[in-house]
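User: Hi! I have a protein structure encoded as tokens and I'd like to know what sequence might fold into it. I'm fairly new to this, so please keep things simple.
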């Protein structure tokens, strides 16, 4: 659409629309007629030539009106093309996604993909640390510098593990934006948080024997729980949800397909994948004994309020201290199971499948823990110690 203002030329033959000082007197005329016509393209004459001016307006995300103008366009067709180009530039923000809206959308999606405790933890971290800082940012404006500032300057008074968790959540929010085509790179990938290895407690073979022997002789309330954990490597929540219908004596496998937690109740396993654990001959004998003890119970192990509240970890550690052995927690029985399997030569892939690790890297960490990956390597040193000589006699060095 075109609104011709030929009389503007008559009023000001030397009008220069690029110079606001030339526009002092007749500007109200152009403004009034432009508003009346409500057209973004204005035709005018300058130095005997017909030219066009294009001006488009739009409001940004905060409601502020912005405009873009271009003068001295020689043809009407070119003016239409420039009008489209300027409108695209001004309206580009409408296709952009703000961090606040996107992070909320991600959390809504995670509500169906993750368990309640994980979803609540992610939401809490975003509300506390990330959203206050990035509330007025578009996701495509955020850079590695912004992420680094968040993790190392904005976040204060927390452990390295907490920083790593915050960074992991931010990476996931950006990754989903990449999957949806909103971003072509993840700005959080360039940021790293170094966390030292956590000292993992495990029992050695002699400690295992003493641990179970004393628990059995004392008829400890958690004897059966500790024993099955050591024989299967199952997590506490998986043991809590284990039913006799999951134990197949004929095939010789335990089906591990669910877990329980105080916050989430019963649901899928940690990795949301089912797996099986082969029943060893020792475990079979133990399960037969436990079956007789439990009678008609649906569940394999005695379920108590103490176990449900998570204090079984404290009870495990206290019992170890009373025996003067490595003071482990209940979850460390799983690590003990893994290291014993690896020490006895079970293939890494089999151990990974039995315990349900989603990453081979996780299982490999237990190789380092038990030293299996470097076992015997120092024998290749071939260093011979000198023998001690006393009174002309060669004495052997003794420990």
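Assistant: Happy to help. Inverse folding works backwards from shape to sequence: for each of the 399 positions I chose a residue that suits the local structure. Here it is:
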């Amino acid at each position: 659409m075109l609104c011709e203002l030929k009389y503007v030329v008559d009023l000001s033959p030397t009008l220069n629309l690029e110079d606001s000082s030339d526009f002092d007197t007749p500007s109200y005329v152009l403004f009034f007629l432009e508003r009346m016509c409500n057209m973004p393209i204005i035709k005018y004459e300058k130095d005997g030539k017909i030219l066009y001016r294009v001006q488009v307006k739009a409001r940004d995300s905060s409601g502020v009106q912005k405009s873009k103008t271009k003068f001295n366009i020689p043809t009407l067709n070119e003016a239409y093309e420039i009008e489209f180009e300027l409108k695209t530039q001004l309206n580009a923000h409408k296709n952009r996604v703000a961090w606040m809206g996107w992070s909320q959308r991600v959390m809504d999606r995670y509500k169906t993909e993750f368990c309640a405790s994980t979803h609540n933890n992610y939401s809490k971290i975003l509300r506390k640390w990330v959203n206050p800082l990035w509330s007025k940012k578009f996701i495509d404006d955020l850079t590695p510098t912004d992420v680094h500032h968040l993790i190392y300057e904005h976040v204060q008074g927390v452990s390295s593990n907490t920083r790593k968790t915050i960074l992991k959540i931010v990476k996931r929010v950006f990754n989903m934006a990449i999957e949806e085509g909103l971003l072509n790179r993840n700005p959080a990938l360039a940021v790293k948080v170094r966390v030292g290895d956590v000292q993992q407690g495990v029992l050695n073979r002699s400690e295992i024997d003493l641990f179970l022997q004393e628990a059995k002789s004392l008829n400890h309330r958690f004897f059966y729980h500790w024993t099955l954990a050591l024989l299967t490597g199952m997590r506490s929540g998986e043991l809590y949800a284990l039913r006799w219908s999951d134990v197949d004596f004929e095939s010789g496998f335990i089906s591990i397909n669910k877990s329980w937690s105080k916050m989430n109740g019963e649901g899928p396993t940690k990795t949301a994948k089912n797996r099986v654990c082969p029943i060893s001959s020792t475990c079979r004998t133990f399960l037969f004994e436990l079956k007789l003890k439990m009678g008609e119970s649906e569940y394999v192990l005695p379920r108590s309020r103490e176990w449900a509240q998570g204090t079984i970890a404290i009870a495990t550690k206290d019992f170890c201290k009373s025996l003067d052995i490595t003071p482990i927690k209940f979850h460390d029985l799983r690590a003990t199971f893994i290291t014993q399997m690896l020490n006895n030569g079970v293939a890494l892939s089999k151990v990974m499948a039995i315990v349900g690790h989603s990453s081979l890297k996780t299982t490999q960490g237990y190789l380092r823990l038990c030293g299996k990956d470097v076992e015997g390597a120092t024998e290749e040193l071939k260093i011979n110690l000198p023998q001690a000589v006393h009174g002309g006699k060669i004495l052997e060095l003794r420990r």
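A useful reference point when you look it over: The two ends are 101 Å apart (CA to CA). Feel free to ask if any position seems puzzling.
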